[in-house]
Protein 1
Amino acid sequence: MAEKSTTQDGGLRPPGGIIANPEGENTEPAPFLSNAEIADRLASLAQLLSAQKENPYKVKAYQRAAAKLRNMSESLQELVQDDADLTQYAGIGDAIASAIREIVQTGSLRKLETLRSQASPDVASINDYPRLDPKRVKRIYKKFGISSVEELRGKLESGDIEQVLGLRMAQHVRQGLTETHAMLLYRADDLKSAVEEFLLGACRVKRAEVVGEVRRRVEVIEELGFVIETEDFPGVVARLQRYGGRTPLVSSGKDNAVFALSSGVMLRIQLAGKKDWGLQMAACTGAKAHLKKLTAVTGALRGLKTSFPTEEAFYRNFGLEYIEPELREGYDEVERAAKNALPRLITAKDIKGDLHAHSTSSDGSDSIEDMAEAARERGYEYIGISDHSQSLKIASGVSVEDLWAQIKYIDKLNASSRGFRILKSSEVDILADGSLDYPDDLLRELDYTVCSIHSRFALNREQQTDRLLRAMDNRYFNILGHATGRLLLKRPGYEIDIERVVGQARKNGCFFEINSSPDRLDLSAENARRAVEAGVMIAVNTDSHGMGELPIIRCGIDQARRAGLEKTSILNCLPWEKLQGLFKR
Ligand SMILES: [Zn+2]
Ligand SMILES: [Zn+2]
């Protein structure tokens, strides 16, 4: 174990202050197996296991572990060589820990090699692309009589896959074949914490603050940015190259550097001092469109004569109100800041309840009572139990009979629960023809409904829009759940004409939700902005399937803030007495 002390002894400063040359790096043998290389092997193993119809939980566990390892700052190789207990890290159980040890100690993984040698040629052909689902690829290979990744790529580019097997299949293949550099925001939050800790600890910077997409709370990020204060910038650059075992330096200047993190996103650091901290924070946070509008007021940021220790001081100097990072996208925030007319963005403490949560009655993991208790502990006044409706068999949809019983049961619970209310709701499927999945006489007994599409995603834009408009004509339709069905980085969602749907919601007194699930965040900030501008209120819902998910409301709040929403536009900032009236059509 030779080079272990590099993150601790303050050494590693390149001679003469020259920062390592990324091209030269390839010519030397890799000193470490990087975390990324270990993660790649686990991801390949997951794919081969899934092709063998292995228990999906096991497959998921390997996939999740691979994602976690890519974020870690500590080198797994070092940890193994130090005989550290790997199971102390979240997501690493005994089996995965021993796989990691085997990879580090032997350079390979027996199980992976065995499965590879046994794999059918079509599965083997995609093992370098672990995000491809072997079952789906098999189907494509069979359909087109092909057997290689090159042919698969060809069928994708020619549009054949989309034409014959649909948009979602084409999307899956495109994502599986493309190196992704994007990451969900909530994953990036973990990465952000790990890098921040590394900067403040191993790199000994005096101050590090996140900027860019993560600070603006963009739902999918490609770059992680920090402004840092240090007296030894080259030393920090050198140490960051040992992040997670090995992290290539992509470019560097005298006060900034970019690294390719093994999780796929870029890491950008910008040096700042006490005097220009605020200026650098502003310069590194805003989206391009924002900075364009901002510099029309301030002049080029790099050329400014005065430096600003805080962002507040910077904005004040130019007669602007402080602009919350979530708003710095280049809509109208600079104009509004100049007129002191920025919105007062919603915050977590404005939330009075959750209007979309599941229980064990359908596919949730906790009872109605437990969900209610967890909501009460968060300081909420109410929680809406909206289990799936009868047609959604894969999510144990609730039968007509059982929903009647549940309504009576909740009435009983409410009779004895002082000050807290369980709302009787349902996540009602919008059927293909736009009708709702329960009869009216049952829907009438609910406090409100969340109505969602869970099937027939392939209808075209006009059909899908008509389906929604028809559903909204039902007087028991209240909130449209996850309006586009998108799953970030996985599938684009079905197509709808959002203008028409917003128009119908306004006309009929229906509402939207921002679904806080980190891979949905549906409505998008742009669509939420559009709805509220048209006068349609929005619920910020978690769609929790267990008590532990209630805190993800923060992701929905981030999204609402990006849409510029104030609490007056949000349904669940209202007490139930007020809300009740809005649900009566
Ligand atoms: Zn749903
Ligand atoms: Zn749901």
Note: The chain has 26 helices and 14 strands.
Protein 2
Amino acid sequence: MAGVSRLQYTTEARLIRVMCSGRVDLEFVLRAFSNGMDGVFIGGCRLNECNYTTHGNYHALNMVLLCRRIMEHIGLNPDRLRIQFMSSAEGILFAEVMNEFGNKVKELGPLGKGEGIDPSELKSKLAEIRKLVPYIKVVKNEKLASRLKRPEEYDQLFTREETDKLFSEVISYYIAPEQCQACMICAKRCPVEAIVSAKNMIHVIDQEKCIKCGTCFEVCPPRFAAVSKIPGGPVPPPIPQEKRTIVRKSQEKPV
Ligand code: SF4
Ligand code: SF4
């Protein structure tokens, strides 16, 4: 409506259309900041007026509330991210909100610089958090599906302490060499090829590549139960390559 009505609003915004505000993933927002955007604005339909049964705008709201806490955790001003609900007929409101947000972002200054964070430090912090997006979504799954009734509840959905704890107690996954039977199931299901796999070889997780989605833990057959979770602490070093071969009983030479 804002365009059709020829309403003026900030020219610094770049619009990306999606079918539903719920489609805007946490990763998209963090990617925008990684690419140097100074602010991210999400416009969604009014709550409880969703065209779909999924009520994606609640998902968008919860994602924004979580992302704002994550931004605080890494030292960014959370006001760089805003969500506003409005109908497509509310062109005047859209223009007003965009102008207000544009002015706010200008006031905050360039991303990181306004907060006094070193650019390379910010880049590495954002890269680290982006790598953990699948983990964050699994851990905060229930809260991300909440339907908060009143705006007064928004601040309490995710607390600062909870978010700090989320990152200080990140779970790592480890394959116990003595239990792994090289069935290869985990390697086939790992979404980022983080498991070093070969036939008849004990499998090993490449901790640098692992995004901590927990799939290997879920799919390792219970009779092997070779994958374990290690909260916070260091992960044992991988066993050396020359000790990874599994000799099956049928392959053992008779004495
Ligand atoms: S948790 Fe397991 S399945 Fe998920 S990325 Fe890490 S190694 Fe792969
Ligand atoms: S699923 Fe379990 S037993 Fe099979 S290769 Fe992976 S860690 Fe080893």
Note: The pocket of iron/sulfur cluster (ligand 2) is lined by residues 175, 180-186, 203, 220, 224, 226-227 (CB under 6 Å).
